[in-house]
Amino acid sequence: MGFDFAHLMELIPDINKAFFQTIYMIAISLVVSTVIGLPVGILLYITDKGLFLENRMVQNILGFVVNMVRSIPFIILLVALLPLTNLLVSTTIGPTAASVSLSVAAIPFFARIVENALREIDKGVIEAAIAAGATPWMIIKDVLLLEARSGIISGVTLTLISLVGFSAMAGTVGGGGIGDLAIRFGYYRYDNTIMISTVLILIILVQVIQLLGDYIAKVVDKR
């Protein structure tokens, strides 16, 4: 079965529903991963050797947890977190349930990006702030986040793009969204129209996210 435009028109309601399920999933996951991943990334940096809140124990424990979660393939993480998902949202299927696993996968990913963005900052700027009597909170707020804002926004962009791919994978276990539509209609029913359409939607979505993210990162980069 080739691409059938008339058949595509019939599937528009299903495609529309799946698209907004995907947006819903990645929006929740992005908020959670940003709210938790940002402070984790900052802690990974400021507790490292030679920094103003050096704490090797905290650094090693956080680093181990982050690396451990990142090393687990998403499809395995998705299944492993089903009990936690059921506990939190009382179901293991649908976009809300999928957003739990998406968030857990995205937190360490974003945290490492934040840490790397902070490592790009000239340590002389931090030393100058310490010499001026700035408190650790002031250094984080007025120096680290300000200096690394462009890199952090680029990190948000990369995280969003990763979440789009993860959300498509979540469809294989009933997570809803574009991936679920592609599996149920495209793969199981050998429907090339829906397969091609879902792939194109994901490509366009990623391109829009990348272009918008790059633009915002350039706007806020005052270096």
From TrEMBL:
The chain crosses the membrane at residues 23-46, 58-81, 87-111, 151-174, 194-217. Residues 19-213 form the ABC transmembrane type-1 domain. GO terms for biological process: D-methionine transmembrane transport. The keyword Ribonucleoprotein does not apply. CDD domains: TM_PBP2 (cd06261). It comes from the Bacteria. SUPFAM superfamilies: MetI-like. It is found in: Cell membrane. It is a multi-pass membrane protein. Keywords: Cell membrane, Membrane, Transmembrane, Transmembrane helix, Transport. GO terms for cellular component: plasma membrane. Belongs to the binding-protein-dependent transport system permease family. CysTW subfamily. This is ABC transporter permease. The lineage of its organism: Bacteria, Bacillati, Bacillota, Bacilli, Bacillales.
